[in-house]
Amino acid sequence: PAFASPSVLSTVSVAVADATAKLGAGTNESYTLSIPADATAASVTAATPYGALHALTTLSQLVDRDAVAGSGLRIAGLPVVIDDAPRYEHRGLLMDSARHYLNISTIMRTIDGLAQNKLNVLHWHITDAESFPLEVPGFPALAGSGAYTPLLVYNADDVAAVVAHAAARGVRVIPELDTPGHSYAWGLGYDNLTASCPTYRYVSNINNIPLDPTAEWTWTVLQAIVQQLAQQFPDDVVHAGGDEVVTECWELDPDIAAWMRNKGWTDYTQLLGYHVTRLGGMIAAQGKTVVQWIEVFDAGVKGLAKDTVFQVWKGKDELYSVVEAGYRAILSDSDAWYLNCGMNPGCAYSSWQTCYSNEPTPPGTVTPAQEKLVIGGEAALWSEFTNDGNVDQQLWPRLSAVAERLWSPRDVANVTAAEPRLAYHSCRMQARGGLDSGPIAPGFCDVRVF
């Protein structure tokens, strides 16, 4: 582009050390961006293509309209040399497409936003108690009866399109198979997949209806789904759920109770452990690492693979307990990074300042070795009160604040200094990416600038 000064940035050279590097856990995303004082050329060096993508994103953010000259473009503060790398390897967003079906266009637009904010993980919470919208060819009734309607499903082409769109932008897609709880919709397609507990006092709360891990038929279906996810999602991680399992429904199912007696088991957390470890073995057999929600850790399940990762939503004390036990952890603190809160009853809205200030490991909380086990964090957008019409308003610009917290060093934490930067970026996302990112303070977006 031509600049207000006589100089013209005519060349951007990009040098990547490993052009074949795989996008996945631990991928090197560092880069160096250099622009000389005359701004005639820019150079990017990076270890992988994904670091180079981040460098080009940074370059695009350095370019803006020349408000002084009134026309043209400029890069201020030349010369520029930026050596940059993320603090955490896992920087993501959980999107829930089960409570409300989300159109592929909405998911792809959100991926565009992730890339603009150097976030690198879309955690796709595809199924839940309310619906099972993923097409499983070998078991057509799962989506045929478990989705809200047969029209609101994700087929293989949809999944491939999302994965390809994300990969081109340096974003991993991690699928979640939320089991054994939150599984009511599975039983709409095949009623013998879920526990039968008609006398359960809270049977109307479908979130409390679990799969039946004692039936081999359940494992036939799970095996098919695990194999499908391994083929459709190239990432080396699969999220196996494990949250909010209410055991009372298991206790009231006479067949499950008889199975427990035959095993000599009296504690239904043993059944949870049986499910978690057997499913984890299936996932590991596909060459994938397992992520579990924190409830599995809290239940004291034995026999978990040591490379299991726990996602912590209950608070930082739980995070510290996980890493003290030698496991890796992802923080999704519901008090700060559940972006649906304020729309959902029962949890309070988090301001962008709260999102920004949510430091995963304040000084003195963990040892240096334990801190290395905190691999990152995710904001979450649960969709009980979220659909295509309000996704952007709930995500942006608060997710930008989360993104900076996960990318930047701990000492980059001044809210006052961050405010103009995030306000400007919110306007930039509106103008460049078509994202409906709201304001964070009084002011306006001058569309001529972006």
From TrEMBL:
Q: Which residues form the signal peptide?
A: none
Q: GO terms for biological process?
A: carbohydrate metabolic process; glycosaminoglycan metabolic process
This protein's GO cellular component annotations are: membrane
Q: Please list the residues that make up the active site.
A: E244 (proton donor)
Instruction: List the Gene Ontology MF annotations in alphabetical order.
Output: beta-N-acetylhexosaminidase activity
What keywords were assigned to this record?
Answer: Glycoprotein, Glycosidase, Hydrolase, Signal
Which reaction is this enzyme known to catalyze? Answer: Hydrolysis of terminal non-reducing N-acetyl-D-hexosamine residues in N-acetyl-beta-D-hexosaminides
Gene3D superfamilies from the xrefs? Chitobiase/beta-hexosaminidase domain 2-like, Glycosidases
Q: Which family does it belong to?
A: Belongs to the glycosyl hydrolase 20 family.
The name of this protein is: beta-N-acetylhexosaminidase
Give the organism the record lists. Answer: Bicosoecida sp. CB-2014
